[in-house]
Amino acid sequence: MAPPLAPGVSIEEFHFPSAPILSLPTSETGFVAIAGRGAVLGPLASFLDFERAAIPNPGINLPIAVRGFFENGGQTLYISRIAASDPLESGLSALDALPVSILCCPDEAAISNAATIMAAHCALRKDRMCLLQSAQPVIPVATHQPPVNSTYAAYYHPWLTVSSLDGSSTVSVPPAGHVAGIYAQTDTARGVWAAPANVALVGVTALSQNVSDLESDQLNARGVDLIRSLPTQGIRVWGARTTSTENTDWRYVPVRRLLIFIEQSISKGIQWAVFEPNGPALWASVVSTIQNFLLTLWKAGAFQGTTQQEAFFVRCDITTMTQNDINNGRLVCHVGIAPLKPAEFVIFQISLPTQPGPNPPGH
Predict the structure, then answer these.
(1) Per-10-residue mean pLDDT, the chain, length 363
(2) What DSSP letter does each residue of 13-66 carry, written as one string?
């Protein structure tokens, strides 16, 4: 503070370098494919971009998955290429620095433990979700279970009948590439909080397996997200559950993806608070910044509640931090939201390093 020019009270205004939280993209997609080692392709904005890349050995699943992705609303795609002998982890790590929110492997059935590896990768990073697909085109309903138990994975069945690349015949392919396009389409049209389901698939003429309504209910309860052929409605994605077996909020794909979006947007959007003095002024500024971001989402229809208080809350004060947190420069903020389904608050915690602060009032 500058010294006063005359005796008396001196006033100096200051502010924290806060900025509005920006919404991060939610539909950028990453494929890991057995297509020979090479640099990551992308960002691709169309199937034509993929064709221009002229991959020497793309296989069958990858090009059809790419075509299906863009036909069904996909906008941005990255492709990590590995050899058949490479570990899947190497392909996943190539996508680490890219803004991927949706992950799938068109050649999943050919890679040992692919579902387990992808789900673990997403759960560790907490910034993306993987779309898994059945290993065979037909699986008995009585024994059909998702391959993993994870809130960061969704599992789709059956396979899709689509035209071959040259249009001279049809082929049956796993569905994740097409479904990833539906995710992107839904994000753009309605928001990441909307279920990517009850949407017709483009370019699909038949399914490898049809199920009855009763079988559909049974499989849905197990976390199998079906694609169904419905009279007068066409072929549609007909499920939006994660593979989690727990009866929690995380059973629902839109809840998990909404939380990923909010957590990542807030985490990146309040980096200005790092190393600021950890005291009431900073806490109030952080709360205001997060509230403004959540208020925008609530007005867009992301949350339950007819009032702001019913839709979300933000706390950052002596009730969310211990004196040890404050002394050691650790800011802890609790955020609760009421997603569209279910209506209970889902609460998470944001933590940042700050400068050690003074003892708050009452300590």
Answers:
(1) 52 57 92 95 97 92 98 98 96 96 96 97 97 97 97 98 96 98 97 95 97 94 96 94 86 94 93 87 94 96 93 94 88 91 58 63 50
(2) -------PPPPPPS--EEEEEES-SEEEEEEE-SHHHHHHH--S--TTHHHHHH
What pLDDT does 110 receive?
95
C-alpha span between 243 and 141 (Å, rounded): 16
- pLDDT at residue 13, rounded to an integer: 45
Q: How many CA atoms lie within 13 A of 281 on its CB side?
A: 11
Instruction: Return phi, psi of residue 80, to 5°.
Output: -95, 125
Q: Both 117 and 202 in a single domain?
A: yes
Please count the structural domains in the chain.
2
Question: Which of 181, 161, 185 has its CA nearest to residue 171?
Answer: 161
Query: Which residue's entry shows tokens 């990517």?
Result: 196
**302 Cα distance to chain centroid:** 15
Q: Kindly state whether residues 92 and 146 are assigned to the same domain.
A: yes
**28 and 76 Cβ atoms separated by less than 8 Å:** yes
- Type of residue found at 109: A
Co-location of 295 and 240 in the same domain = no
DSSP string, 224-268: EEEEEEETTTEEEE---B-S--SSSGGGBHHHHHHHHHHHHHHHH
**Residue span of the structural domain in which 308 resides:** 270-353
CATH code of the domain containing 206: 3.40.50.11780
Q: Give the pair of three-digit tokens for residue 98.
A: 């890219």
Helices (DSSP H) in 44-200: which residue ranges?
47-53, 61-71, 88-93, 114-125, 176-189
Pick the last residue of a domain from 191, 220, 250. 250
Encoded amino acid at 255, one letter: V
The answer to whether the CB of 363 falls within 8 A of the CB of 340 is: no
| Total count of residues recorded for the chain | 363
Is residue 68, in this structure, part of any structural domain at all?
Answer: yes
**Cα-to-chain-centroid distance, residue 267:** 15
Q: At what angle do helices 253-269 and 280-299 cross, to 10 degrees?
A: 140
Provide the pLDDT for residue 18: 63
